[in-house]
Design goal:
Layout (H helix, E strand, L loop, with lengths): L1 E3 L11 H4 L3 E5 L6 E5 L39 E3 H11 L2 H7 L4 H11 L4 H14 L4 H16 L9 H17 L3 H12 L7 H15 L12
Antiparallel strand pairs: 1-4, 2-3
Helix pairs in contact: 4-5, 5-6, 6-7, 7-8, 7-9, 8-9
Length: 228
Amino acid sequence: MRTAVFFALSCASAAAALAQGAVVPVVCPVDGNVFQFQLPPPATSRETYLDMRPVEPATAPWPHPKCPGNGFVLYKQTFSQSEIAELREFVFSDRYRSMVDVHSTRYLEAALRRHMGESRYAVAWSLVQATWEVSSDPVRYKQYAEEALAAYDAIPLDALRESRHRVLKQMVSGELARRLGRFESARERFLGMRDNPEFSTRFLQRIIELQLKLIKSGDTGTHRTPYR
């Protein structure tokens, strides 16, 4: 049996567009309490930065709904009864409670996914999104970026069946290495991609060219993906 989480999002899809930016009631799956959550504003562009963070809306990424009191973050719309039982035990543990007021919602998502034994790729991607949430905080960004990079590097390429996952892992890992100032590592990563047939499209080659220029100039800043 699946348990509905978002009241508004479980309604007809026709109402979903109207709900953007609206405040809706949400049921916390681990304690049953109802709280209010503001839905994110609509995206106005598909442009991203080199770490895949959306350019618009400027508020991206919107934080996950977070249960008052216990701090559980609803990182997906539905959870099974067995998932809720296992998550509840972790959420009320001292370990999770020590993280609730310190970390962003997607960092907490990574902790929850890791506890549930979900794929290392899903955990790494959650950590990448956590870096977006703290992009204006250099200290927290460094911590999250280092953890995201380590999580990606721990995944063997041959463990990823889908080409898009292999490409994203390598591209984002290279970007994280550059943003962390690990220029030699970043340079080796992008040089390896440059001659890899999996990165032969003009779009990916343009990203690699830009990254190598940024690395050469010692640039650790945020830059948009070159779509044109």
